[in-house]
Amino acid sequence: MKKNAFIFNTNKCVGCMACVVGCSIENGTSLQVNWREVNCHNKIKHPGLPVFHFSLACNHCEEAPCMKNCPALAYTRDKETGAVIHHAEACIGCKYCTWACPYDAPKFNPSTQIVEKCNFCIDRISEGKQPACVEACPVGALSFGQEDVDEKNHLTPGFVNRGIKPAIQLIPLREAHRKPQIENTDAPEIDLKKVESYLPRTESKISLDKEWTLVLFTLAVAGLVSWQAAHLFGKADLPLIPFALISVLAIALTSLHIGKKLRMWRFILNLKGSWLSREIFSFSAFLGLSGLQIITENRMIGYAALAFGLFSLISVDRVYKFLKRKDELVFHSGMVSLTAILLFAWLTEISILIELTLLAKGCLYMWRKGALKKQTLAWFPVLSVFRILCLLLPYILWDMHISMPLAVYLLIVMMGELIDRSEFYYESDVITPKDELRMMHQEL
């Protein structure tokens, strides 16, 4: 079925950035935020590498992950044009859509503390005009019209194909453009194995210095749920004041990660589609019901709270389903659900559960480190040894019946979990066109 779509011919694009300028002028964007970007593969102009560019903005996908996963319902689709529209007044600046979109279309503006993106020049196309970026292209590489998009052409090298039906028709790259044969006897030799080190580094959307609040928040979720579960099993006291203080701290930590804190209530508006909405709603329900259980001493309320708590653990792990990891493994030893099970096992002192969880987390951790080492990526051996010690030492001391307060064991365990969870963010990244181009270069 035909629909409004961009048409991009990689063979014609010369990387002049006129489309970027045209978009910026039309929409009045700031210099630090471009809604359209030109991704160049061969930035160092090496003659032995492919020479082509991708001009990409929002592709207004039929199954747009930004719209589906936004917890605040800040995205809608215009039925007449097919444009996916972002509403600034509804955005909370959580940046989750920037993780979900594989085309790097939603841009977080640090000045406004919210996200913004291409709107398909909806005012122009509604009047029968071309989008500003299309009009600005001097070589005809970028056009726009009613197209029956052929997804087979989305296999063009460097294009991110995630089956979300983007509204862009790609003209296949000619074979001659994939690897041009250029001879220059005067040019100095460049070791292709070292070309990667010559390429400019792109800033990752996920980094530990940005996500440290999420590290602490997710560990707080695991700790509070396991604590409440142990209390229901009659193995731990649950005093109201300490529980409330940690709960308030957890909420404060997650609020630091969003741009518009007064709009936090919008977090729970998209329970139908967003795991982030489900996480915040279920965790909030868990905290409220747990507090009510402590006050009323009603166990049935406690079991209801635990159900929400368990779902919040699942939701936390599912929130990160978009990320790609350097180790390329499915499971991670720092998963919040695994941390909660380990803490619960220690609080209840169920030896078989402690042993099984230690085995699972230890094997996953060693497996992951082996994968990183095999790929010659940073795996921090000294820190890894310390993490393994934090995992095993409490059990060894406990099994030897060395008399120590449970709080000491838990402190050591949490130090290890802090390392593991921090490494999860350090080793994760978001899928973007730039990364696809770099991966293609590595394969060559």
UniProtKB/TrEMBL annotation:
GO molecular function: 4 iron, 4 sulfur cluster binding; metal ion binding
Pfam families reported in the protein's UniProt record: Fer4_11
Name recorded for this polypeptide: 4Fe-4S ferredoxin-type domain-containing protein
UniProt domain 4Fe-4S ferredoxin-type: residue ranges: 4-34, 48-80, 82-111
InterPro entries membership: 4Fe4S_Fe-S-bd (IPR017896), 4Fe4S_Fe_S_CS (IPR017900), ET_IronSulfur_Cluster-Binding (IPR050954)
Domain of life assignment: Bacteria
Residue intervals passing through the bilayer: 214-234, 240-259, 301-320, 329-346, 377-396, 402-419
Native organism: Ancylomarina salipaludis
Keywords noted in UniProt: 4Fe-4S, Iron, Iron-sulfur, Membrane, Metal-binding, Transmembrane, Transmembrane helix
